[in-house]
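Section 3.1: Structural characterization of target chains.
Under the original work plan, the team committed to producing a structural model for every single-chain target entering the pipeline before any wet-lab resources were allocated. The record below documents one such target. The sequence was received from the expression subgroup and is listed exactly as submitted; it comprises 444 residues.
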Amino acid sequence: MHELAIETTATRPPVEPYFSASAQSAIVAPRDKSDEPMQATLSASPIALTVELPFAEVARGARPPQPLSRADAQTLAEAVGKDLQRLLGDVLYEAGMVSVGALYDLPEVLQPGLPMVDALTSVYADAMPPTGFEPSVLAIGGQGGRFPIPDIAPRREAGAGPLLILPLLLVAPPETLDRITPILEEKLLHTGQAGLDTTRAVQSCFGLRPENLTYATFNDLCALMKVQLDHGGFGALWDLIENALFQRGNPAREILDTGNLFLWTGERVLTPFFTVGEWLSHPPPGAANVIDAYLAWLRAQRQYQAGLEAHGIDVVAVFPHPDLFEGSAASACDTAAGRALDDQQMRVETDPSTAGPGSSESTRVSAVEHATPETGPVAFSAGEESTDGSLAGVCHYYPVRRAAVTAIRRLLEERARSLGVVLNLETADEVLLDARGRQLRPRP
């Protein structure tokens, strides 16, 4: 696993002694440092207190608790400090520490370039005296219900995973941290159980009854996520996340058994989005049922996209092209970069087998929502119905992102309203094909 380290150069005002009875809990606002004569280079080693929730807590899909007040964050930081001194020995007194009084879902912490580490390092640097580095503790807490660093405020989304993360950062000059980091890697994973004071602080401050409280390095967190994703059959997803997390610049390509393609460009992930019509025109070889194969592709597409975006990785949908699957990853990235969808929320496909937009004779907009219990909405097909029952101007609307489902329904309502007719939207619990078996059917 890769070593994580961040360096910064800065000077700041004085703080309390390390592990003092009154650990620093306020956030010092950045100030102009152009006139400061002395600067100190810091290295940072990120670690975490992992909070494992009981199954019942996870099953009910509750949001993670609110961030702590400054006073509670300070109480928890003092307990954590005692734990780390017990686990690591007196060498810990040579480092400073930043403790965040908030709990995060794991993907919020493992983001490209580790912005959490950058932010916490800057907080510590903002509290350093002009004379240079002095070991101290900073406990970050909120005030008036507001988190003091908006860029790293916890999302607190419902349905977070069973493992919540309380981020910590050890800060010291590089030569000091070089001695501490190997001890962290050796001891935390095997002997990093939190003490009684920390357990009580988590219970009282966050209102949780965790199953387990242990310390881990960020490298340990990466290893844990890799194991979990591999076990769930998402090994390629971890490869993409790892490339982004460690900001690898070399292009890479992942092709799944379901036909999904993901290209890592060095900055973002590009992925082709297929319509049913395109899928039927070039069906995957050996597929017993082409529509079932498409639904399997769609499920994987949504799972991977959600996983990547949860980690803060930019995912761009592109028009399919055979060259994306052939040649080098670098050439595929170049081709894909010029084929991005104009609308990243939905894809609209006009059915060429129907006439153009309807006329004043249109009596209603007839539409069907193709859906399955496993995938939810797959696509919407709609056309303008005339008095003789014929359809004109048929279009198929695909939600590239789930949020587009509501937008598509609204778009169909506006289309009917503009014609002065009613919208007849029906739902089919399957993907309906036309008589030729080449395209979606716009009504049951």
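Residues 1-39 have pLDDT under 50 and may be disordered.
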